[in-house]
């Protein structure tokens, strides 16, 4: 489960420097949730206006992660800084979901266990077979 360690590492790293791209200025109505090929769902809360990243890109994001019962297990907002990480070094739900976003957008990613941490979970943080929800704002692509 190398991806587990990589996501936790990426999620715990604060972005060294960020000139954050503001979210789309005109509020938009949330889209209907869309199920992607892996079984994860994405709901666009704010439609971005910038480019979409590729799996091989690094991205800068702000996010909040919660368990199905609403318990927050991680948040870049609580650390006061967005983070940056290679999109192909995180859980599959993030790799697939963030590629469906555009810079400046905000989306809700619902990650079934198979696209998150599976039967192993993350001891002390995420229980086995947990469905996770992330609200993600895509601030930029690249460092």
Structural write-up:
16% of the residues lie in helices and 29% in strands. By secondary structure, the protein is α+β, with helices and mostly antiparallel strands. The longest helix is centred in the first third of the chain and has 11 residues. The two termini are 26 Å apart.
Number of helices: 3
Terminus-to-terminus distance: 26 Å
Structural class: alpha+beta
Order of helices and strands, N to C?
HEEEEHEHEE
Largest sheet report? 7 strands, antiparallel
How much of the sequence lies in strands comes to 25-35%
* Uncertain residue segments: 1-25
Radius of gyration: 14 Å
Q: What's the pLDDT, averaged over the residues?
A: 84
Number of strands: 7
Shape: globular
Helix content: 10-25%
Strand-helix topology:
Blueprint: H1 2-12, E1 34-35, E2 41-46, E3 58-67, E4 72-75, H2 76-79, E5 83-86, H3 92-99, E6 106-111, E7 132-141
Antiparallel strand pairs: 1-2, 2-6, 3-4, 3-5, 3-7, 6-7
Main features:
143 residues, alpha+beta, 7-stranded antiparallel β-sheet, 3 helices, 16% helix, 29% strand, globular, disordered N terminus
